[in-house]
């Protein structure tokens, strides 16, 4: 990373882990696989939103409660997950998250049989509690699996696989949920049963695989060791929580009404085609992370974050015009420039927190609750004005992200 010095940080590992300190390649690969899992869950979410509007005959505003349940779970579960990991370690936190993920996925089966939207909200909430555990564990774990100077690059690389899952989700959902004359929830049942089984198998694999338990507090360097300030005295962390809240709010808002926007402003486009256009956006999202990871070797992460956020402010302004296919292309382009935002904000926010790293990670994951509120607000604006105008809300959110990349990231 530009401007980075050679790290003299060292980490102590649990002797039972079976992995030599500093030999973090295999643990990095294994934990990175988790990013694919929650990317897939998120990629399916926006397709479910439109599918439930039609099959369960609910309004756009009510369907956005899916995002409310999904991201509300992050808010409620992140701190308990952080406390659990502080006591039992990263590995057990990951296994707990996988078990909750599987339980929520299996509950989709009775929810579909009952044709009950509220039951789906409960199932999705439990599933997302598992994802909150995984994110609270995996994101900070990746940042400390190596030199702290390259933590943003590592996290962006891992998040590339989150992008892959987010890309596959709309393709799978569009093909299965909108394929043919499918007007029931049978394919939803089957999809989530398969997901639940796969997640259980991965949980078993984690249970049988040794992982190093890294103690961040013991070895962040002399300056960090001497820093006795409480967590919220670290201004870059506080601004990181704020920026992450607004970023996730923007990301979820952009995706939640994507299919509605495309079918409304691009005449003749079906739900199925709009789902594949969403997949194109997710493909740009994924590729953007690879590109961003490479660019960070030459450009400071905070500067790249600020530039990408500013571009998205301009793109959202054009999306608000509702200018046919051109505005849809602009909306798709937003995904590329969102790509680096979550991991970069996360890595900048937890940097040099020392013993506060796990707790700080919990608060940043809690800030994902921003994704629970904005889609509903966009639904209200859509019913009051139009879908195009509702994209002014993500535009404002990207302004906050721009500020964090410009000034808010600075560590005192």
Automatic annotation (TrEMBL):
Its main location: membrane. It is found in: Cell inner membrane. It is a multi-pass membrane protein. Keywords: Cell membrane, Membrane, Transmembrane, Transmembrane helix. The chain crosses the membrane at residues 24-45, 65-86, 93-111, 117-138, 190-207, 237-262, 274-292, 304-322, 328-350, 362-382, 388-406. GO terms for cellular component: plasma membrane. Residues 27-412 form the Major facilitator superfamily (MFS) profile domain. GO terms for molecular function: transmembrane transporter activity. This is FHS family L-fucose permease-like MFS transporter. It comes from Chitinophaga niastensis.
């Amino acid at each position: 990373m530009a401007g980075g010095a050679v790290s003299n940080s060292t980490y102590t590992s649990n002797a039972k882990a079976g992995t030599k300190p500093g030999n973090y390649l295999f643990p990095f690969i294994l934990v990175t696989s988790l990013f694919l899992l929650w990317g897939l869950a998120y990629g399916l979410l926006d397709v479910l939103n439109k599918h439930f509007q039609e099959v369960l005959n609910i309004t756009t505003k009510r369907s956005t409660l899916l995002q409310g349940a999904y991201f509300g779970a992050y808010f409620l579960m992140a701190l308990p997950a952080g406390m659990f990991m502080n006591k039992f370690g990263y590995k057990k936190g990951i296994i707990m998250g996988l078990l909750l993920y599987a339980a929520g996925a299996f509950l989709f089966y009775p929810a579909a049989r009952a044709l009950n939207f509220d039951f789906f909200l409960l199932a999705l909430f439990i599933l997302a509690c598992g994802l909150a555990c995984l994110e609270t564990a995996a994101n900070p774990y990746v940042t400390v699996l190596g030199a702290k100077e390259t933590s943003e690059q590592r996290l962006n690389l891992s998040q590339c696989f989150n992008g892959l899952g987010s890309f596959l989700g709309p393709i799978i959902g569009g093909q299965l949920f909108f394929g043919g004359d499918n007007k029931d929830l049978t394919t939803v049942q089957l999809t989530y049963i398969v997901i639940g089984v796969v997640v259980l198998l991965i949980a078993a694999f984690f249970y049988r695989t040794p992982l190093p338990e890294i103690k961040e507090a013991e070895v962040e360097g002399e300056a960090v060791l001497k820093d006795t300030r409480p967590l919220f005295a670290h201004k870059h962390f506080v601004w990181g929580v704020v920026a992450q809240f607004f970023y996730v709010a923007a990301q979820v808002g952009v995706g939640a009404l994507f299919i509605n926007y495309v079918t409304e402003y691009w005449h003749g486009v079906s739900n199925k085609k709009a789902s594949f256009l969403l997949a194109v956006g997710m493909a740009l999202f994924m590729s953007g992370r690879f590109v961003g990871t490479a660019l960070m070797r030459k450009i400071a992460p905070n500067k790249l974050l600020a530039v990408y956020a500013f571009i998205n402010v301009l793109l959202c302004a054009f999306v608000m015009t509702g200018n046919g296919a051109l505005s849809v292309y602009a909306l798709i382009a937003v995904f590329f420039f969102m790509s680096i935002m979550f991991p970069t904000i996360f890595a900048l926010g937890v940097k040099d927190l020392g013993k506060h790293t796990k707790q700080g990670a919990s608060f940043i994951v809690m800030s994902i609750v921003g994704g629970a509120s904005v889609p509903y607000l966009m639904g209200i604006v859509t019913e009051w004005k139009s879908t195009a105008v509702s994209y002014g809300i993500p535009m404002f959110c990207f302004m906050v992200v721009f500020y964090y990349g410009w000034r808010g990231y600075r560590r005192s």
